[in-house]
Amino acid sequence: MTSSITKRLEAAQTIVKHAAKIAMDMRPPPGGPTGKLKQMQDWVTEADGAVENFIGEQIKNLFPDDGFQGEENGQTRSGALRWVVDPIDGTSNYGRGRNRWCISLGLMDGDTPVGGIIEAPIQHETYYAQKGKGAFLNGARISASTVTDPSTAMFEMGWSPYTTTKTYLEKMQAMLELGAMPRSSGSGALALADVASGRLDGYLEIVINLWDVAAALVLLEEAGARVTPFIQHGGLERGISILAAAPGVAEQLGNALGYSF
Q1: Rounded to an integer, what distance in angstroms lies between the CA atom of residue 178 and that of residue 204?
Q2: 71 is annotated as contributing to ligand binding
Q3: Is residue 88 part of an annotated ligand binding site?
Q4: 66 annotated as belonging to a binding site for a ligand
Q5: Do 48 and 82 share a domain, yes or no?
Q6: Does 48 count as an annotated binding residue?
Q7: Same domain for 222 and 239?
Q8: Which domain holds residue 233?
Q9: How many domains, the chain?
Q10: What's the pTM?
Q11: Residue 136 in 3-state DSSP?
Q12: Which range (11-15, 36-40, 155-159) has the least confidence?
């Protein structure tokens, strides 16, 4: 099975590179916003559909027995191995011509994430991980940061229309009281990848979906980061919270924010 997964992920890297070119060609100029609202601050653009459809068709041609699930079209095929794609993660950024967005493609074996590719074409960066084989950024192995003091930590929290302002502010206050430096950049997949690479020491999203995290879960595990049990807590069925953190500050962040690993 390991060789079969490796074969799939190698092919998927090429597919995602081509998908990134589609997204770049369709990328709107600065300004906006461009796209349609699904809900307050929850955007979808023509590129979301085009990229998802392209990846889905390419996967189907190469691996017709594999399942496929996308943010825009849902689960269109079932299979023991299932691909989960967020065609444009950070759509609000993408739709304004901003740079912080990516394509996120994860591979799952049943309920277990086994591979992930996150392509950030503006940054010329490709994150790649396979379960048991390490996590990489542009071919170089990555690992979570060695920070142990929250007062020196850099932390990001995503904003979502699916949580209350009160809850968001409570979590932000808890983070600030630890002395962590806050950030918010609009792409959950890239923020989780930043935790895996040590660029961030923690990331919290109060409500996030499987397609946002499927690729990053493998990256985080292979990079030695700590992650709350997203799959076990119902992340396959609905949007739930995720907290990812460098191992040296994970318990402190978890205790302050009300999450356990």
Answers
A1: 14
A2: yes
A3: yes
A4: no
A5: yes
A6: no
A7: yes
A8: 150-257
A9: 2
A10: 0.93
A11: strand
A12: 36-40
